[in-house]
Amino acid sequence: MSNAQDLSEEWREEADQDFAVHLGWLPRERNFMLHVAGQHLLPKERIKLERQIRVAVEKVEHPESIARLLARTVRQVSARNVTVGPNVMCTMTRRANVRSEGNIAIGGGMIPIASEFKKEESYFRRSRGGPFGPARWIYSPGDPKAAIHYGPNYASSVIMMKGMYVGPQNPEMSN
User: Fold this and answer.
1) 137 contacts 152 by C-beta, under 8 angstroms
2) What phi and psi, each to the nearest 5 degrees, are found at residue 5?
3) SS3 readout for the chain
4) Model pTM score
5) Counting Cβ atoms within 10 Å, is residue 142 exposed (0-12), middle (13-18) or buried (19+)?
6) Of 30, 46, 65, 82, which one is least surrounded by beta carbons within 10 A?
């Protein structure tokens, strides 16, 4: 879904007022499709990422490890491109919830508190469920030791959630 990019991964000269939705089906011989939005990947970055995703998709059934690979790639691009930030928000729509109607529980990813757990892998660890079921989003700061944690904006026909923030009252104090 985009108002400024199509399936070619190229930017339009001007963003449209309306968003377009592109829907396609994967051929049986493919387990995933990678669509890069925003900044381009270098050819070697894309080849490496697609190879890593292919291996991960064959081994795991859950999105957390794929999200970790994507976050690492965003950080690689961030290191060479100042217009890309190192913090990553991953939202996940689980297959079981794609066509669900009715109530939805909004649960976030892990928020490592103790310094010994503030490592990249701690943010992408699959939660056991808890009261909200598996996580529907993961926030991973560029610096795993950061004391700030954000949540996504969420809007539906009946509710809006905006600007969730967990951390010190003065964000400058966390650096």
Assistant:
1) yes
2) -145, 150
3) CECCECCCCCECCCCCCCCECCCCCCCCCCCCCCCCCCCCCCHHHHHHHHHHHHHHHHHCCCCHHHHHHHHHHHHHHHHHCCCCCCCEEEECCCHHHCCCCCCCCCCECCCCCCHHHCCHHHHCCCCCCHHHCCCCEEEECCCCCCCCEECCCEECCCCEECCCEECCCCHHHHC
4) 0.77
5) middle
6) 82
166, 147 Cβ separation under 8 angstroms: no
60-93 confidence digits (pLDDT tens): 888 888 999 999 999 999 999 999 999 998 888 7
Residues recorded for the chain: 175
26: its two tokens: 């994967």
